[in-house]
Amino acid sequence: MKIRFVVAFLVCLSLTGFAQKSSVDFEIKNVGITVDGHFNTFVINVELGSNAELKTISGKITASSIETGIDSRDEHLLEEDYFHVEKHKYITLKSTSITKTSPSKYSVKATLSIKGKTKNITIPVMIQKVDGGHKFTSDFEINRRDFDVGGGSFVMSKTVKIYVTHYQKL
């Protein structure tokens, strides 16, 4: 009976493929300890040209969907001194220019808006072909103080590391 279950499970898994899930994750040091988290609600739009070259990229994150694993901290991050979600519901990114740096890598100049402040940033984006589509990844850092997130805290790092993975079907 166990063998049938295992075989049935493996057949179902092979028919559906593995789940590919897009994600927006972050890390920041607070009192010397790395705090990590993610956003649960976001939309990433990628447009590719005819040669599968990156043409545009944009994203919209619902700021209130932040999750760090500690409910009280998550609630505090929604308040005015952090994301002030009552007034600023979204974090947005929109490419302004894209330069191909290698066959699968791009340098993307974009505007990033957080908490009503917009800054120009440059981020790396890598594209990989995966079964049935493309995988886009970008790892970059921002200064939280540029966006008035977390005030002038001296125990919290000003550098936030951001990791984005997005899957898009053909």
Overview of the structural elements:
The chain has helices at 2-16, 71-77; strands spanning 23-30, 33-39, 42-48, 54-62, 66-67, 90-102, 105-114, 117-130, 133-143, 159-169. It has 170 residues and is mainly beta. A ten-stranded antiparallel β-sheet has the order 3-4-6-7-8-9-10-1-2-5, with helices on one face. It is elongated and about 45 Å long. The relative contact order is 0.18. The model is unreliable at 1-18 (pLDDT under 50).
Number of strands: 10
Biggest pleated-sheet summary: 10 strands, antiparallel
Global Rg: 19 Å
Amount of helix:
10-25%
Shape: elongated
Which series of helices and strands comes N to C?
HEEEEEHEEEEE
* Structural class determined from secondary elements: mainly beta
Q: Give the termini separation.
A: 39 Å
Low-confidence stretches: 1-18
Spatial strand order of the main sheet: 3-4-6-7-8-9-10-1-2-5
| Average pLDDT level | 91
Tally of individual helices: 2
Residues in β-strands, percent: over 45%
Please give a handful of descriptors for the protein shown.
single chain; 170 residues; mainly beta; 10-stranded antiparallel beta sheet; 13% helix; 54% strand; elongated; disordered N terminus
In short:
With 170 residues, the chain is mainly beta. Helix content is 13%, strand content 54%.
Task: Please describe the topology of this protein.
Layout: H1 2-16, E1 23-30, E2 33-39, E3 42-48, E4 54-62, E5 66-67, H2 71-77, E6 90-102, E7 105-114, E8 117-130, E9 133-143, E10 159-169
Antiparallel strand pairs: 1-2, 1-10, 2-5, 3-4, 4-6, 6-7, 7-8, 8-9, 9-10
